Amino acid sequence: MKVCVMREADSKKAAHLLALARENIGRPDALPAMMYLMLPDYKPTFIYNYYNLRSRHFRLEEVFFTALDEEQQTIQGILSFAEFTRKKAFLKAFAVDQALANGGAGADAGWFLDGAIAELRRFREVEAVRLLVARKVESEAEQFVGPHIDAAFAGRLAIHGFSKLARLEREGGRNVAVEIFERPAAAG
Predict the structure, then answer these.
(1) Cβ distance 65 to 1 under 8 Å?
(2) Is the separation of the CB atoms in 101 and 110 below 8 Å?
(3) 134 and 144 in contact (C-beta within 8 Å)?
């Protein structure tokens, strides 16, 4: 298995994996699993259909990497980075299938994240990777706002080298808290 920049021919497979992972959010043992997805206000089914995914990648709005099983010619995972500012890249989408979720063939989600960051650094100077997690705080039990992050991954951020930088209360005047996590690009 290897980490590589998404090939144009893989855009349909990658979009399908993201769509399945999104449908499985909230189902604890369902795979493929969405590890993280920071969404804009419009529908993710639109932004991550294959022609928009290919277009976003081509125009460098979002750079996609795949975990490719070369023997089977299948995509076991996909992740993307976007909004490259001040040498920080934002992790935008992160989905893994059965093999990566279970650590098959000596590879797991951490290996995939490390490999994708290393590939990204070959093309662009990046010091850190950030992600944002938004939660509604109307009640004592905080709820994720939209399908931003799978609960299983939320509890494992430290394992993947992320630490919390800040928590922004009532972001945008709404009853939503946004947590910012960061990991040095060289970590791992």
Answers:
(1) no
(2) no
(3) yes
Q: pTM of the prediction? A: 0.83
Residue 87 dihedral angles phi and psi, to the nearest 5°: 65, 25
Residue type, 96: V
For the beta carbon of residue 46, count every other beta carbon within 10 angstroms: 9
Going by C-alpha positions, the residue among 37, 151, 32, 25 that lies closest to residue 99 is 32
Q: pLDDT (tens digit, 9 = 90+) per residue, 13-69?
A: 888 888 888 777 767 677 777 766 665 454 556 667 777 788 877 777 888 899 988
Identity of residue 31: L
Structure tokens belonging to residue 94: 């992160």
8 Å CB contact between 118 and 100? no
Question: Could you give the C-alpha distances from 30 to 12, 76, 147, in angstroms and in order?
Answer: 21, 15, 15
Residue 2 three-state SS: strand
Q: What is the mean pLDDT of residues 66-83?
A: 86
- The amino acid present at 119, given as its one-letter code, is E
DSSP characters over 68-99:
EETTTTEEEEEEEEEEEETTEEEEEEEEE-HH
Does residue 170 come out as left (phi exceeding 0), alpha (psi in the -120 to 50 range) or beta? left
DSSP at 123: H
Cβ(126)–Cβ(90) under 8 Å?
no
Torsional class of 90: left (φ above 0), alpha (ψ -120 to 50), beta (otherwise): beta
